[in-house]
Amino acid sequence: MKLSIRSLLTSMVAALVVSTTPVRAEDTIKVGVLHSLSGTMAISETTLKDTMLMLIDEQNKKGGLLGKKLEAVVVDPASNWPLFAEKARELLAKDKVAAVFGCWTSVSRKSVLPVFEELNGLLFYPVQYEGEESSKNVFYTGAAPNQQAIPAVDYLMNDLGVKRWVLAGTDYVYPRTTNKILEAYLKSKGVAEADIMINYTPFGHSDWQSIVSDIKKFGSAGKKTAVVSTINGDANVPFYKELGNQGVSAADIPVVAFSVGDEELSGIDTKPLVGHLAAWNYFMSIDDPANAAALKTWHTFIKNDKRTFNDPMEAHVIGFNMWVKAVEAAKSTDPAAVQKAIIGVETPNLTGGISKMLPNHHITKPVLIGEIQANGQFETVWKTEGLVPGDAWSDFLPDSKVIEADWTDKLNCGNYNTVTKKCSGQNYK
Amino acid sequence: MSALTYSSTIGRLLLASCLLLASLPGIAAAADLPLAKLMGFDFKAKSAAITAIADSGSPRAATILGALLDGRLLMRKADSRMVIAATSEPKTAISDALDGSELGSEELVNLKKVVINNQLRLVLRGALARLGLANSDRDARLAAVEALAADDTPGTIAALEDALPKEQDAGVKRAMQVVLALAALGRPEETQRLAAVNIVSGSMLGEVRNRLAALLAKDAEGKPLEPSMDVRVAAARALRAIDERRAHYELVQTIFFGLSLGFVLVLAATGLAITFGVMGVINMAHGEMMMLGAYTTYVVQQAFPNHIEQSLFMAIPAAFLVAAAVGIVIERGIVRFLYGRPLETLLATFGVSLFLQQVVRSVFSPLNRAVATPQWMSGQLLLGDALALTWNRLYIIVFSALVFAALLALLRFTSLGLHVRAVAQNRAMARAMGVRAGWVDALTFGLGSGVAGLAGVALSQLTNVGPNLGQSYIIDSFMVVVFGGVGNLWGTLVAGLSLGIANKFLEPFAGAVLAKILVLVFIILFIQKWPRGLFPQRGRAAEA
Fold it and tell me: B248-374+386-543: what fold?
């Protein structure tokens, strides 16, 4: 109860403080930025807002879009899921933005989804997520499970010879769905039930003693063991510390994490983490001219050359460039026209490849595995050859295996059952 | 899929030039070590180079490989010379990798690190373990033998057989015999296998249990893989003995985990037991006092970056003073006008907690801060052959117990304690006796807040130091105080410890999420039946 009072108060305060002042000018194109600037998610989302401001600034320096200047409309949904829907409605109905870039958690995305579908807006969602969704109005520029979790498991299985698996996660929708997919995938590869251990912990869990001790016991059975971690955010720090203290090193039981990035590492003592892995589609340490240029622009814009650049930020760069190209091709910012024009649009990503928007509204991305170094950065140790196309509906879950998403005229459906030949609405289930 | 597609042109060029250098004939024996092959990104070549260095018999091999494992083996960019850094600080003393000669100090930016990955770490550890058999330190030899337990390649066996007769220490000798016997478990002769089982039985090495269990495994048709009945019986007996001892250790370990969680709860709740329990102020800003203590630790570490090992001892008084001072300001500025109005106090202190969080966000940024753990608090204490207790938890148990005892002594034996108790029991009477009630209130609130600051120092070693640190402990703190009985310090201790232990015993069966829920449900039911907690205050004071 206390928490709900707290979030209510914070959101009220935030709503008062952050009042947008839209400039009444007819010759600008408005771009909505829907990221939490206060509350628990502010840590992660504030940098995404800055990224958007930088991208819009850069585009305006290049002369804007369709001869008009771009104008950012920033709102603060304050890490409060219902407020996300309200703010989204405000952006679409009141400010009449051409596109919205925003959301981080899956809950917030699910909360705004009906609003975008009702008012036919465009949302670019930049964070890796659990999949099982494809909306006409959402473009998923983050990784689907087959662009992060599955390749990471492949790497562990083939390159490290891992035979026993601990799937550890925070107790909410993303880890649960991802682990369900991974469990099905591992079993399809012949891993026995007894060789998979699944563990969930509450948000912000800090007492990892018994869990680490269990993992240690599970890993001492003579087969190479790895932990696939969907543990969220800062609960990772005490987890890695406990691993270190109980003498479990990355060489014994490597932990591959899907939610630990450069940004998270910048706030922690990385000594106990060296050698552990993370799977992402982008690392700041990537040696590529496009990345170097992007980092330079970012550091100049933010006026601090210590600031990190992370995977969701790269996803925003890709998503924004795709939107710009689609608008140029359609010669209009009308959502229906952009939706048509954006499919098949290609734009360079920051890891040396060309990402493409697919008919299922996901994009192609490379998958990288990085090892944490003593300086808190990731060193890439493995990379997929070529780019992996994002799969909205996992092929490893029996229910979603038969579902397809295609927003071209062929199907024009985000949830098409290939067995019953029926489209069950553009919605998620 | 290729093992590695990452490459850089510069790396390749360097590698090529280094290979060229290394292939020049007529270099002294030590220089034959294929150090140059360690550069670049061809991890297969690196692995081969490591094995070659380990098998070279060079006296420098252990030093070089140890430095490589620690990430201290570097190449000087100026002349491609392989060097070993003394530390991993930005500017460090370096020495030549091959002959150990001192080369002065060098900036880290002028050095290129040899990149290794997890597979290489494993190869390195194996190689170092084989080299470590000749180490003069007994513990190092023992660790080396244990690291070789799962490795039954002929090279390792031969190395162990060589080392066994030379070994003087009984413990290391026994470990060597066990590891050799493990390899003998695969021998064709039944008597040898039986003898091997007898040698390994009683050893708590993890590998022993796995191999014994493997002896008892059955094939697809249900026939045992081990043909001899005698060997199977002996293995089953040895396995049972190991499992019994393991269960015993696990019980001790769970109790330890429970105690350590319990003492963290006690530490977090003691401050609240004073402000809420003794003074009756529902202090929602209690968690933020812990947060301030944790941030004080961070500031102390930032102020003395070269004294991380001692920083906690400086942080303890500093955190106490900072949190106590803020506590006194809150009491004098806000709480004293609200005595006897619990709802207003609750709201006001809740506001204070939001305010303090935002102050921290503005001053230190909303990101978590990194508080370093001193060396003496890392790692674990090994008791016996399979029981390991982590140092940080042990220290926190001791610290928490000391804080608790000190507080108890303060309340019981000092005049301040007497006044605090007098004011808590009957304010009007205490004032009539000449006690300055307002002053005592301020000091008591300061004391409670200061203790919360101390808890913050301990928490900075366990969890994240960020603006939300307090929030995650405030509910637990209230839970412990209410469960133990408001106004009773001993109740807080018993409640904290029993909740910690209950939680840890439930966790393996129910999972962390459900365990927490079960404990909460239990407390709700308990408070329904006994609203005054475990140790209710009796007498007239309780009615007031």
Answer: ABC transporter involved in vitamin B12 uptake, BtuC (1.10.3470)
